[in-house]
Amino acid sequence: KIITLSPLALISGRSLIASLVILLYIRRPQFTWSTAQIGGAMALAGAQIFFVIATRQTSAANAVFIQFTAPIYVAIFAIWFLQEPARPIDWVTMAAVGIGLLLFFSDELALEGMWGNINALISGICLAWFVLFMRKQKDESPIETTLLGNLLATLVGLPFLLQATPTWGDVGGILFLGVLQLGIPFIMLSIAIKYLSAVESILIQTLEPVLNPIWVFLVIGEQPTTRALIGGVIVLITITTRSLIINRRPRRPAPIR
User: Which residue range is the domain that position 198 belongs to?
Assistant: First the structure.
């Protein structure tokens, strides 16, 4: 909210910083140009770009809520793509998270903006396939996928970034987002995806939109509504409870074929 750049310029700037962070971490990227590596990169860039288009055509709440229907697509596609069928607890978790997100965004959800909602849906499908392609590379090096995806997003938004006149606040915001919102989290995801199923990975990511208002409150003092707080607590408790239950059970690594 404190960045004045256009959405595509912002995507380009933060993705560029994220690419540099990831490159510093891996130093010597191993590009295999496999279907999973390229597909994951395109899905990552698509998730970001279609989300930005969606926010221009519908409310931000609609865009975020629809995008985070991604766990459903992951659960469905993972059955044949990864041979990782979702467990009953996964479906229960998805239902509870869906209720929590609905409450969280209920004050801002709107019926208008059909094309925006469609683009948000495409963004959610792209996000799902990004996670699926990352998981497909669990026995390889999935981090190069995040590097390629961020480089692609940088190129798409680069014309808008070059035309912009960023303020020092914009520069600081881009650095913050590129390092802490994208760069470091992508590095951690590339490690975690080797040990977590695709469904587990995407469910944990639903914490992001819930925790965002906390950062907004801490930085600019904007207070979330009561329903948003209740919805956020439901999501947080659901994800935490599921993790505790799963970790108490003996686990078998899911086969990748």
Answer: 7-247
Structural domain includes residue 211: yes
- Please indicate, yes or no, if residue 257 is contained in any of the structural domains: no
Q: For 39-86, how does the pLDDT look when each residue is reduced to its tens digit (9 = 90+)?
A: 999 999 999 999 888 888 877 778 888 888 899 999 999 998 999 988
- The domain total for the chain is 1
pTM reported for the whole predicted model: 0.87
Task: For residue 19, tell me if it sits in a domain.
Answer: yes
Structure tokens of 217? 């409150």
Distance (Å) of CA 105 to CA 68, 170, 207: 12, 27, 14
| DSSP letter for each residue of the chain | ----S-HHHHHHHHHHHHHHHHHHHHSS------HHHHHHHHHHHHHHHHHHHHHHHS-HHHHHHHHTTHHHHHHHHHHHHTS-PPPHHHHHHHHHHHHHHHHHHTTT--S--HHHHHHHHHHHHHHHHHHHHHHHTTTS-THHHHHHHHHHHHHHHHHHHHH----HHHHHHHHHIIIIIIIHHHHHHHHHTTTS-HHHHHHHHTHHHHHHHHHHHHHH-PPPPHHHHHHHHHHHHHHHHHHHHHHTS---PPP--
